[in-house]
Design a protein that fits this description.
Elements: H1 2-44, H2 56-78, H3 83-100, H4 102-117, E1 125-128, E2 131-138, E3 142-146, E4 152-156, H5 157-162, E5 165-167, E6 173-182, H6 188-200, E7 205-206, E8 212-218, E9 223-232, H7 236-253, H8 270-283
Antiparallel strand pairs: 1-2, 1-5, 2-3, 3-4, 6-9, 7-9, 8-9
Main location: membrane
Family: Belongs to the MscS (TC 1.A.23) family.
Subunit structure: Homoheptamer.
Length: about 280
């Protein structure tokens, strides 16, 4: 009993020390969790101070993970771990992981390039490759978009940056192009007058740049009249659809027709065909 009592007396300070370290570690974890929440809220409030909304998700991710890393180092220090050696070990492990996950690192690098050059911002409609959508979030790894048909797309940042980007909403105005086809027997000036009347009746069409009217092509079955006009970007589709809706009744009101594709077929009867063949033989 005396020996057991002596061992307990020796282990008691050690147990107390370990217990206190565990308590301090739990306290550090709780403080880290609370601090991460506060940091996340603070970063999200940066938009109220004029920070671009596109930057906020990445800044939030970096700040939160940075807080967790600091908290983890504090916990390790409480248990007496050699944090200097650990940092060196993590650096070596990070290099190995980086070589193994080079594609993922490309996504991160592309994300920073997108955030730095700002070819688009949250809320703008873009196209890269065959994908069209409204930007919702630019993260460290992916860019999230909502397509016009209501789908959510998460595209790797390197795929977005690696394609030619088209931004449909960055500029304040956008050009509308409308083709009006009339028959060869119709009067071209009358068709031009119809287009000018449509423009004059549409107040949302901008007067600068000035609308342009031209004969675009003498096609196989029609004369194609071309209207180019400008409208505000956020009104583009409404103006385009209204003009297309009014175009057909306006052409018909002036007696103009929208022709169908036509093909002329000349039939040569037997006698004429024989004569034509004989003439070809004499020429040879």
């Amino acid at each position: 009993m005396d020996g057991l009592k002596a061992q307990l007396e020796e282990l008691w300070p050690v147990a107390m020390g370990v217990g206190l370290n565990v308590l301090w570690a739990l306290l550090a974890l709780v403080v880290t969790w609370v601090a991460a929440k506060l940091v996340s809220r603070a970063v999200n409030r940066l938009t109220e101070r004029g920070i671009d909304e596109t930057l906020v998700p990445v800044l939030e991710t970096l700040a939160v993970w940075g807080t967790y890393v600091v908290g983890g180092m504090v916990v390790l220090d409480i248990f007496g771990a050699n944090t200097t050696s650990l940092v060196a070990l993590l650096g070596a492990a990070g290099l190995a992981i980086g070589l193994a996950l080079k594609d993922t690192l490309q996504c991160i690098a592309a994300g920073f390039v997108l955030l730095g050059l700002r070819p688009f911002r949250v809320g703008e409609t873009i196209q890269f490759g065959s994908i069209i959508g409204t930007v919702r979030k630019v993260g460290l790894f992916t860019t999230e978009l909502d397509t016009p048909d209501g789908l959510r797309i998460s595209a790797p940042n390197d795929k977005v940056w690696g394609e030619t980007l088209t931004n449909f909403t960055r500029n304040a105005s956008r050009r509308i192009e409308i083709i009006a086809s009339i028959a060869y027997g119709d009067d071209i000036e009358t068709g031009m007058r119809v287009l000018r009347q449509l423009v004059a009746q549409e107040p949302r069409i901008l007067q600068e740049p000035e609308p342009a009217y031209a004969v675009r092509a003498l096609a196989d079955s029609s004369v194609n009249l071309h209207l180019r006009a400008w409208a505000k970007t956020d009104e583009y589709w409404d103006v385009y659809w209204d003009l297309m809706k009014k175009l057909k009744p306006a052409l018909e009101a002036e007696g103009l027709t929208i022709p169908f594709p036509q093909r002329e077929l000349h039939i040569v009867n037997g006698a004429e065909k024989s004569m034509a063949k004989a003439e070809v033989l004499e020429q040879q």
